[in-house]
C-alpha cells in the first residue's frame, strides 16, 4: 500500500469568490473530501496545510518550506502531491527540482484553472490524475501533472491563462499521459549523477530582465549595486546590442565585478547558440554564461540555488551548465 502525503499551499484549486475576487478559501477538510472522492485505489492518503496563498504571492522562502517538509517526511511516505496555484507553479516545480535533487520519491504538483467548488472545473480531473501518477509512475523527481499530462518539473511552462491545457513541456518530451485512472509512461528519464554537494539554501537576490530595443544601460548600474546575479532574456540566439546603447560592455563590467550574468533567449523553443552571430559571440566574450535550452523559470530557480552555496564565478558557471533534473540538453 502506497503512502501519499498531500501538501496544500493554496491557489485557484481552493479559491472561493470573496469581496475582492477569487482567493484561497476552502478548508483542508473540504479539499480532502474531493481527494477522497477521486480516490479509487488502496493508497493511504494524508493531508497537511503548509500555507494558503494565491501563487502570485509564492516566494523562494516558500519553496524552501515545501522542500524541507518533503525531506523531513521522506521516510514516512512513498509519494507527495502539492496543490498549488498555476501562475508560479513552474517556478516552484523548478525550485523543488533543485532543492530536492537526488531524492528517491515521486513529487507531483497540480492545481486547476477553475476552483474545485465550481460546477465546470478541471480540478477533479487533475486530482485524480495526480493520484494516479503518484501511486503508479515509479519515477523519482518533481513533475507537474495537469490536463492529463505529466511534465518534468524543470521543463514546465504556463502557456495559457484560461484553457485547461495551461502547461506545455518545453524542449523535452512529455513524461506521461493520464486518463481515467490509466497511466501511460511516454518517456522515462535516465538517472543523473550530480558531481557537487547539494545544499538546501537559496539566494533570492537575482534579477531578470527582458531585452528590448531601447533598454537603458543605466539599468545595469543598478544591478551592479544591488544584485548577486542577473539573467537576461536576449534576442534570438543570445544576442545583445553593442551599437549606440551598448549593453555588451555592461555585461563585461558586471562579470568583472563578480556578478554572474546568465544569457537565455526570449524564444520559448529550441534554446540558443551564442556562437552563430556576432551579436552573440560578443556577449560570450564579455563573460555572459549561456544557458542553452533551459527555460527561464528553471534558470531563475537554479541560479538562486547555486548562489545559495557559492559566489565563485567559475563554479557558478560550472554548476549552471551541469544538467540537473534534465533541465539542460546542450549549452
UniProtKB/TrEMBL annotation:
What name appears for this protein in its UniProt entry? Answer: Asparaginase
Key words of the record: Hydrolase
* Keyword Lyase listed: no
Domain L-asparaginase N-terminal: start-end pairs: 3-189
Provide the coiled-coil residue spans.
Answer: none
Per UniProt, residues of the Asparaginase/glutaminase C-terminal domain are: 205-318
Which InterPro entries does this chain map to?
AsnA_fam, Asp/glu_Ase-like_sf, Asparaginase/glutaminase-like, Asparaginase_C, L-asparaginase_C, L-asparaginase_I, L-asparaginase_N, L-asparaginase_N_sf
**Highest taxon, organism lineage:** Bacteria
Keyword flag Chloroplast: no
